[in-house]
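Morning!

This is the sequence you dropped in the shared folder:
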Amino acid sequence: MPNFQNIAIIFFVAVIVIAHFFKPATYRLRINTINELAAQRYRHKWFMQAGFIGFGILQIVSVFQRWDIRPLLIASNGSVILYSICVIIIGIYCPKPWVEGPHYSNREVFINSLFNQMGSTIFCVAVMARVFAGGSIPTAKAVHLIILLSLVILSALTGQHVSSSGIWDRLWYTIALGWLVWVYNEAGLAF
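The structure's back. Tokens below.
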């Protein structure tokens, strides 16, 4: 059976990388987030939208492929599924354009922002559940805790430091995707 976790991560990273080749000149890696590659009124937004939706679906399949019935792991796995649903919704409802001028839907921006924030929070809950599910392995608990703190700090930095939002956002995704690979592959199943 194919490892859907690896497929999900490779697919999503490939979409993000390819989407950057088609970004307009006004898009800045340091300032603009990955989510903004799917901004309203952007000609190539469909590509990043497909990336979010595809990643969300593949991630849900991946969680079910590696499902574990231990209670705290159910909490973590359930949270990853809820996060994945948020990612799918982010792919459907787009953020506002990063350039001034074009008309856009405030309702769509609100939904995108709400599920983006919910998704980040729910993802942190998934990591936190792994801290408590780490059993007697202090190293695993410590790694999960460091990842959790990193994600919380990066989420705050993305929202507060607009001039560097793109950097913090990309670091958040790097850590989050790395955590998913670790947890949903053989090495992370014990943690």
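Headline: The chain is about 70% helix and 0% strand.

More detail when I'm at my desk.
O.
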